[in-house]
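Re: beginner question about structure tokens

> Can someone show what the tokenized structure looks like for a real chain? I only ever see the sequence side.

Sure, here's an example I had lying around. Input first:
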Amino acid sequence: MKKTLALLLAAMMVFALCACGGSAETPAAEPAPAAEAAPAAPAAPAGEVTWADYQQYLIDKAGANAPDLDEFKGQVYAINSWEELDQTVSPWDQMFTTIGLSTWDEFKAGNVKEPAVGGPASGEPTDEPAAEDASGEPTGDAPEGEPPASGTAENTAHGGTPGAISEADYQAYLKAWIDAEQEVNSTMTDDMKAEFYAAADAMDFSQRPGDMFFNGFLVTGTAMTFEEFVEANGVY
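And the corresponding structure tokens:
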């Protein structure tokens, strides 16, 4: 009996020890660190100048002088960088000399120039009267592919001789017209004038600078065509 009771007490002590060992708390696992957020991409600087801004600037400041505005816009939009802008061909060869617009570097630096020549593109008013037809009404646009008619009234300040309507007389008129242009156009150099003289002597108006007699890029506006000169009886 005593041996049985001793075994029971021993068994109870073993169970008590097991229960105490099972109740020991294990340290909680530390939470995994949260993943770091990826750094945000830097925002574009406020007011950054883009090539599209420069394209719009060229259109706004030179488009009014272009014989065909839609064609000029297409030419501007087709150029995707300053490196693609060939300043040796029309109309870009006069864009930064005669008209006096900002280059891309100047535009990016905030040096935004206004056109140096007068007329609608520069916002300066012109005093030249509109061309009129025989009825006295203003004429419309010149037919496509022909130089714009200037109207005799725009070309009466230089001189001329009534009845002098030969080709040589017309060449002399064009040179006198360029002389008058140089007086009011600060960008017209003697070298440039010599090139205009050569174009007049050659009667070559298909390329620069000969086409500039008629495209309205110069301060004086547009010269008379040979037909207009004959119709005006050589008076200019």
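Each token stands for a local structural state, so reading them left to right follows the chain. The CA atoms of residues 159 and 236 lie 5 Å apart.
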